[in-house]
């Protein structure tokens, strides 16, 4: 007869736990074929484009996927990492997972990474952890400010895949961390480090990825979360209100988007006589085409063409020690009771 364990005795074996870092996505290359495949998946997501299929699909397949891949590919080509033949987003997301893994290894946690669009896919990431014996998985969407178009889309896609599994792992999802003290502190330190040996800029612009205005009207909290992140960052920096401004980038299509728009704001500041600005994009934890091409290259050109003189782009947290510290803090908090 096997011995009876005391009521409070720990289990004889601890189920393996997985952590899956999930970022937006990336094409496999900047050629037209790769870009069309990536954009097709991204722009087919009903969380991203909230329009009836009968209206949107003829536009997507008849116009956009025949014109935009070449233009988007040219943007990716400017920032492509030729040494490893990959986009910066893939490079940094993988590096984040690799740096986080040893910090959780002692607790038997396995860390992997995936993309919502492109490869490695969410399904591949979940399957990889399950195949390594993980019965519990923490999904960590790397979007600091929750939106239905980002975090909710990850949850939707993960649940679609989980619905196909005969044996499902237990899952948890990292909540929004737009006001997480460790995140705000890391952002503030990155600004201070970037500006340490430079003349103080006339303005600091805090740029977030734009969303259609209707998403705010429908109750999406993204805009509010962006504003709170910006306010907390400004307070951490002790930066005066009149020299700190929130803008929204990456406008797409004819609809009104969240304002003020980044490009006309930057052009207007230069025309008004502002000679130096610095820009940070706290909605991204990893540098990508939206930060490196759109901001660091495109908006720099806009600023200088309109009379500006000094433009400073402050990189994302990427795989720096403060970013890995943040990921560990968030992971350990959400893994409570599992490890």
Protein model, in words:
It is a single chain. With 339 residues, the chain is α/β, with parallel strands linked by helices. It has 11 helices and 8 strands. A 4-stranded parallel sheet has the order 2-1-3-4, with helices on both faces. The chain has a 4-stranded parallel sheet with strand order 6-5-7-8, with helices on both faces. Strand 7, helix 10 (289-305) and strand 8 form a beta-alpha-beta unit.
* Amount of helix: 40-55%
Q: What is the terminal-to-terminal distance?
A: 30 Å
**Which structural class matches the secondary elements?**
alpha/beta
Q: What quaternary form is this?
A: single chain
Low-confidence stretches: none
Order of helices and strands: EHHHEHEHEHEHHEHEHEH
What's the pLDDT, averaged over the residues?
95
Count of alpha/pi helices: 11
Shape: globular
- The fraction of residues assigned to DSSP E strands is 15-25%
Summarize the main sheet: 4 strands, parallel
Q: Give the strand order, joined by hyphens, for the main sheet.
A: 2-1-3-4
As a whole number of angstroms, the C-alpha radius of gyration is 21 Å
* Count of distinct strands: 8
Q: Helix and strand layout, with pairings?
A:
Layout: E1 16-26, H1 32-43, H2 53-79, H3 88-104, E2 109-118, H4 122-131, E3 134-141, H5 151-162, E4 170-173, H6 181-195, E5 203-209, H7 213-217, H8 222-237, E6 244-249, H9 262-271, E7 276-280, H10 289-305, E8 310-313, H11 321-334
Helix pairs in contact: 1-2, 2-10, 3-11, 6-8, 9-10
